[in-house]
Amino acid sequence: VKKWLVNGMPATSIDVADRGLHYGDGLFETVALREGRPRFLESHAERLSRGLHRLGISAAGVDAAMLEVEQLARSHTFGVAKIIITRGGGPRGYRPPAEEEPTRIVGADDAKPSPAEYYAQGIALRYCETQVSANAATAGLKTLNRIEQVLARAEWDDPSIVEGLMLNDRTEIVSGTMSNVFRISGSDLHTPPLVKSGIAGIMRAKVLEVAPSANLRVSEATIRPEELRQTDELFVTNSQIGIWPVRRIGELKTAVGPRTRELMQCLVALGVKECAR
Amino acid sequence: VKKWLVNGMPATSIDVADRGLHYGDGLFETVALREGRPRFLESHAERLSRGLHRLGISAAGVDAAMLEVEQLARSHTFGVAKIIITRGGGPRGYRPPAEEEPTRIVGADDAKPSPAEYYAQGIALRYCETQVSANAATAGLKTLNRIEQVLARAEWDDPSIVEGLMLNDRTEIVSGTMSNVFRISGSDLHTPPLVKSGIAGIMRAKVLEVAPSANLRVSEATIRPEELRQTDELFVTNSQIGIWPVRRIGELKTAVGPRTRELMQCLVALGVKECAR
Fold it and tell me: Which residues 149-208 of B are in CB contact (within 8 Å) with A?
């Protein structure tokens, strides 16, 4: 059962004047809940604090949000928590109010584990027509401005296609609609940089962290669709799923290979047990 | 006093799970209320319907929203109404739910007329560092994704600067943070195209409509900061203000000229009486 806390109190609604609704003026996190505990909670807290700082929103509520996530997590063996912090209410207009009172929203719910075959055989991807726009001011941030992802995800119904890749206006792959993307070529692990767009995923960071121990050289690099023909392995990540290997992208078949398997085992060691399936 | 209707019922809050909050998955309109009547309501309704269609959100609630605006308008001699239509609630994830129930939010409040000197002597503008991103999928739309405008408006405190111009990553002027921008050179009236970014402002459309009767040749054209040195007149528009002539942009002084005055008189004839001040 979905449960929400708004500024610490059980609630089902928020102020209709909240800037989160009017402008998407805030950030969110989705935290995996496993066996009654939030996973990588400290990483989420750090990212949220850094992001709020970049937006000029007080991060004073982050600690409380984390305690609330821990509290809500107890009733979930396999679930997901969502944290939203907005700039709060205020007078009409884009200008942030002089006296901000951020709104803290924390919710938790049970989640359905991904199908075992996603991990075992890999998933099929497509290319989305909806592009990701570029803006250094919000690059890397998980802001509440997600209409591009909504439009991209609305492009397909076919349940055999699990995720869509989004490109920027230079035809470079930025990310999946809800995941980061990685390619492996030889012993090089590449993922797109976050200078102009994309989200600095928590699982992305964990993969970059463990990659050297899997003898992979890590670097941020642009990835173009045509380069995927010369790619050995391809996978996507997010905090709820860990790693999903990719077996097909559009018409191009890709191998689910040993290096992705090794990275998945590294994540299992960090507590991402679904990658053991 | 601010008053809100949510799906037709007086309310102060919305569902915490609404996609408007989570993703900015919706559109808004701000309608000027003058002497108990909404101004250009039909134009707002048309723009809103077209925009919802582009986002794949049902426009079935637009008529009801317009009736609600008319109803709320009665208690305001000089005010502003805001309409928000979101894709509504639904399960977690970017994917739009199969059965959408859009949320309709309508609010009205008194407003303060702009200072008379804005119309008489013109306003001062600055250039914002925060860029506008480009995306054909949302160009022209007044979506709830407005974090770029929030960050741009947060850049300055100086009350003598009334508006900020935002550029795209090609250093072309897109718009003000809350206004469209026009330049006049000889008998040419230019405003930036909306192919990649910007909002299709209602007052922008009215100006384009009346310009030929003021003997101005209208065209959409990119405007670069350096071109403003060769510009005769410059002004900004939005639905609440009509036209504000520009007297200064950064260090560059611009003349508040006769052609802008003539356009202002044309708008007065359409009911934008504040332009007569």
Answer: 149-154, 169, 177-178
